[in-house]
Specification:
With 350 residues, the protein is an alpha/beta fold. It contains eleven helices and eight strands. Helix 4 crosses helix 5. The longest helix is centred in the last third of the chain and has 42 residues. GO terms for molecular function: tRNA (guanosine(34)-2'-O)-methyltransferase activity.
Length: 350
């Protein structure tokens, strides 16, 4: 895989391309499922923020192996390329209408599991990114409370932070067990992890709503380090390391082996399986290729320079005008001029 040995993409990216997964995140869900068996016996599943569809691919593969009548609904604002056996909804997860459509596809029944691998566009400001991710999880939980059956499970990506315990405490109110899972395929240097909530058991009298959209500090009462039921690393610890760059040069990997043509094909470059069908940045990329951004930047720079010149000329003109006014005032107030005027007036009187 890869064009040269200097390809810095990690092993899971290359394995995803080789095995036709749409993204490396497919391995994260598989490793969590291998550890907790959360997809075992599932007949109805919902994938939130599903694009480009790697988690939906895993659902399709694992659910239909056990039950051919299983149903999977994938939701995202972006359109996705079709996946066999997956019903796709292009909609907003914060809308009650979207929740109603999910239940309609399940013939009035509710889901056994809801998963969400969504994340906001990161800014690089960690505190802001962590907060936005927590808000996204709460939005995912809101729709989950509409479509998840009692006893069902919920899995969502989280950015670990000092306020994570508050989120765990909120989830603990609605689920009997809450775990924090870190798959082997998730880079250890990343604050990314996955909150796994098992056995949905909402408080008595709880009414699902889309209105819970912010972390509430009152929910933090009594929060301790033991609020979660465990931190679990998932995946074979002796397997591929997501932090390591494995060489692609066949001579480096197998210096003394006699390889046939089939072995050599393992290192052929492969294109991505399925790029986004209509990405949000598509128009921007097309504009960039056409050079319109360069022209806009040049025009803007030219206009700014012209504006600065106009401002400089205006400042000079105002300064000259002020200087002229000061000179005129000095002439009016000059005592020599006043004496000359008085003498001239006296001569006229005589």
């Amino acid at each position: 895989m890869g064009k040269t040995s200097r390809d810095k993409r990690d092993i899971y990216y290359r394995l995803a391309k080789e095995n036709k997964w749409r993204a490396r995140s497919a391995f994260k869900l598989m490793q969590i499922d291998d550890e907790f068996q959360i997809l075992k016996g599932v007949r109805r599943a919902v994938d939130l923020c599903a694009a480009p569809g790697s988690w939906s691919q895993v659902l399709s593969k694992r659910l239909y192996e056990e039950d051919k009548d299983a149903k999977i609904v994938a939701i995202d604002l972006q359109p996705m390329a079709p996946i066999p056996g997956v019903i796709q909804l292009q909609g907003d997860i914060t809308s009650v209408d979207t929740a109603n459509q999910v239940i309609e596809h399940f013939s009035g029944e509710k889901s056994d599991i809801v998963i969400c691998d969504g994340a906001p566009d990161v800014t690089g400001i960690h505190s802001l990114d962590e907060f936005m991710q927590a808000e996204l999880i709460l939005a995912a939980f809101n729709i989950t409370s509409h479509v998840l059956k009692i006893g069902g499970n919920f899995l969502a990506k989280i950015f670990r932070s000092r306020n994570s315990s508050l989120l765990y405490a909120q989830m603990k109110k609605y689920f009997k067990k809450v775990y924090l899972a870190k798959p082997r395929s998730s880079r250890q240097s990343s604050c990314e992890a996955f909150v796994l909530c098992l056995d949905y058991s909402p408080p008595e009298g709880f009414v699902p709503t889309m209105g819970k959209s912010s972390l509430e500090m009152t929910d933090a009462s009594g929060v301790t380090a033991e609020v979660i039921d465990g931190f679990v690393t998932c995946g074979d610890l002796s397997g591929w390391d997501s932090e390591k760059s494995y060489p692609l040069d066949i001579d480096v990997c197998f210096p003394s082996a006699n390889l046939d043509e089939e072995d050599k094909k393992r290192y052929e470059f492969k294109d991505v399986v399925q790029p986004p069908t209509d990405p949000a940045y598509k128009e921007a990329l097309e504009m960039k290729k056409s050079g319109i951004f360069s022209k806009m930047n040049a025009d803007m720079t030219k206009e700014l320079k012209a504006q600065h010149k106009r401002e400089d000329k205006l400042k000079i003109a105002r300064a000259q005008e002020a200087e002229s006014e000061k000179t005129a005032e000095k002439k009016e107030d000059s005592p020599v001029d006043k004496v000359a005027e008085e003498l001239k007036a006296a001569k006229i009187e005589q």
